[in-house]
What does this fold into?
Amino acid sequence: MPAKLIDGKVIAEALREEVKQKVAERIEKGLPAPGLATVLVGENPASQVYVRMKHKACQEADIISIGHTLPADASQEEVEALVKELNADPDIHGILVQLPLPAGLDEERVLNTISLQKDVDGFHPINIGRLAQKGREPLFIPATPAGVMYLLEDSGVELSGANAVVLGRSNIVGMPVSLLLVRANATVTICHSRTKDISALIREADVLVAAVGMPEFVRGDWLKPGAVVIDVGINRIEDTTRKSGYRLVGDVAFDEAVEVAGAITPVPGGVGPMTIAVLLQNTLRAARLADGNKNG
Ligand code: NAP
It folds into this structure.
């Protein structure tokens, strides 16, 4: 029987609607609308698209968003000065520095400059450090990993005691997803480019999160029957039947996997929409923290 589809578009839409509703309630109570500032350094076309999408989503949720752009040759000091200015701006509750930064800039130093209470992307070293420690609570969780967990929880997947395999160990997806799965009491195996016999490890997985950035890397016959598959990958492959000349596929061979898995996210329309919805949720949380609400 084909797998149940985990429809990220529908789940993200519901979350966006919930955020919009809560923003409206704030404004009715006389509280300020949440404010997000984005910082885009350079002209990376993919980053420009992502930042535009984030602003559009903010607008739809009645969140104020202000875009700042700096040239690709901006100095470390200039980027940090802008972040500090935004830290001090009471109308800005969340700051998002779009990654990757151009070569030559020290990403860690920039992320470290963001006020902890405004770190809506959750990449501040202290927030990530807390994520890795038992009994500590990060103020914000990075949007894509949080989106993965939201999809799993919304779909009623039992994580406690489950065998989870995470493919990829990047700072933005694989590692934080792995930490979140551990916090949810799953037993986690992290695979990366040096892992031996990945297919054998995946065959043991009740839950697979794929984030390697390689088109259709995971084949259907690698999966344990009934496994839950969350495909984070977004890869362009040539498709001459499309006007654009390409189409998007995930890290999992969907047509094969859908015949074996118990539930699966499509690409596009799976994790992608969740990333933006969680960013809105995090921005609302930042505004609530600024109100003095300790739990956000
Ligand atoms: P990344 O930084 O390039 O990391 C890729 C990871 O995959 C690394 O840990 C790497 O291992 C591992 N890897 C590479 N080749 C491998 C192989 N042959 N076997 C096993 N592991 C291998 O990528 P990322 O930023 O995490 O992104 C991963 C994918 O998610 C991309 O397609 C990206 O577009 C997508 N993405 C989607 C969203 C969304 O909103 N849906 C957000 C972010 C990213 P090493 O560490 O050993 O190099």
Q: What stands out?
A: The chain has a mean pLDDT of 97. The chain has two domains: 32-115, 143-272. Residues 32-115 form a domain with the Rossmann fold fold (CATH 3.40.50.10860). DSSP finds ten helices and eleven strands in the chain.
